[in-house]
Amino acid sequence: MVCQRKWRLLSSGWLFILGLVALRETRAVHHRHVGQFTAVGTYYSLLELRGISIMDDIEVGSYNSADQQITVKIPWISQVIEADYTNQIHHILVAHEQNTHWLMQFLSNNDTNHNRNHTAQLLAECEIDNDIKIKSRIHLIWEGEEYYRIDEEVGQWENLKPEVKKLQYILDSPFWTNLRKNYMNEYCVNLLRKIVGYSSLRDNVPPEVTVSRHVNPEGRIILSCTATGFYPRSILLQWKKNGELGVWGKETSSGILPNMDSTFYLRLTLELPPEDSGTGFTCVVEHTELKTPAVYPVPEKPTLKKPPVLTVSIVLAVILVMSCAGAFIAWKKRKSCMQ
Fold first, then answer.
1. What are 278-308's pLDDT values in tens digits?
2. H-helix or E-strand containing 90?
3. pTM score, two decimals?
4. By Cβ atoms counted within 10 A, which residue in 62, 95, 142, 154 is the most buried?
5. d(CA 51, CA 1)
């Protein structure tokens, strides 16, 4: 009996710790920056180099080698980035043209037709969570195939195409290593911090919340709380019973996922133990666009889902009957006139 009591206390402790971890992840302010460069050229010349900068799924800037100009897509960003900083970025992009051409020469050296056009891409991505860098990666893509990639935390290039292994020693050289680290720290991570630290990249939107209740095949009560269409990404969903926070059962989360319109989605479910009737539960939602935490009560009865196929079938059947009735009436009238 004592052992069982200790085990329950230990289990509750672990559940509480896991709940705190989940809470931290849900509340985290997360941002992502992707720099994508696409180059087209031959062994002899670089025909075009285009670059785009995307932050939190919003394009914030672009570069084109045709005019060697940086285009800022969101006007207020120019107020955040000092002129000297912009000039540094411009200088790096112009120099990047030469480095890209050299890389294309190296990779196309074995091509017997040196006038053939080739496409090279570099994808640099970094992410911050509460202003702390959590991810930094680079991908090298040649003719649509990924040849090399590196995770900055690992610090070693991964070769995905054995036939181009000779590029490894160049990527590992001090020159390219310093260039890579400087670019990722200064112009991926720090630039992201500058911009998102100044203002939101898009209009804030409050979440649309739905709460449901159903019973699974094992007879357990499952509560679901879904928030969608919100921006920014940071949000908190939590379950309360009779106004109190606690560990009420097995809680699972979808994680914060992106929607097609650059807003976000989060679903939180709670599987209750057999002895819990599921009464008195609410889903509490906190978001920057909600002035105070919003409280959504859980239905006392299971949420009924209308089968969409059945609904459509009924509508079609009604339309068909009405059409037939209309045709029959018209036929009767026509027959009466003929008589």
1. 999 999 999 989 989 999 999 988 765 544 4
2. helix 83-107
3. 0.61
4. 142
5. 67
